[in-house]
Amino acid sequence: MDSGPAHPVTLDARLDEPSRALWLVKWLLAIPHLVVLFFLWIAFAVLTLVAGVAILFTARYPRSLFDFNVGVVRWSWRVQYYAYGVLGTDRYPPFRLSRTDYPADFDVAYPERLSRGLVLVKWWLLALPHYFVVAVFTGGAGTIAYQAGDQTWQVALGGGLIGLLVLIAGVALLFTARYPSGLFDLVMGLQRWVYRVLAYAALMTDEYPPFRLDPGGPEPVPAPGPGPGAPEAGAGATPRTAPAG
């Protein structure tokens, strides 16, 4: 029996059968989403600051703000998955914050309590090593760090290693009409890393993102532990009897 996701941040996707050439114009088709997301990310930045103050005084992330901000990231992930971050489906993303049956999903388990002290340092100091890794993945085209100068948040927009791999996948689609499954798994692992760091930096969880690549479409789950009545190692072995003298 599985014990559930290994991390409170879950990024899932199902690879459809994208068409050969639609990916060439998906960025254009996604413009309505990008316009809406521009304003949603402004709201995300403001509400994250409000949530940070709330956590500092109450150790709780207000649930309504949490659900909204998770919804903004979920919306962004769907658009990325469709248009430029994976190219894993031709199904147009819904204009919704809530979860749907779309083949790409993002979620964060709601934390009942968060550390008051961590809220002051995790988004800029503790997450710093991950920012360097994410910069390689995204090529600096986007950042998930809080920019103190202009007080804005940004999410990775592609480029870097992810952008290169997605371009290779697009070329493969163009000539073979197939998305290489191994390439899909790798891109998903990189995106999963980015979004875990985003959730941590945005104060949604206190669980530090692992320095680990978890490839594949479905969110990995830990191996089930032994049952309550399972014998310990060696406990169930048949005792050996001494040979008759």
UniProtKB/TrEMBL annotation:
Composition bias type Low complexity, residue spans: 230-245
Keyword DNA-binding recorded: no
Membrane-crossing segments per the record: 27-57, 123-146, 152-175
Keyword Membrane: yes
Disordered: region residues: 213-245
Pro residues biased stretches: 217-229
Keywords carried by this UniProt record: Membrane, Transmembrane, Transmembrane helix
Protein name, per record: DUF4389 domain-containing protein
Lineage, opening ranks: Bacteria, Bacillati, Actinomycetota, Nitriliruptoria, Egibacterales
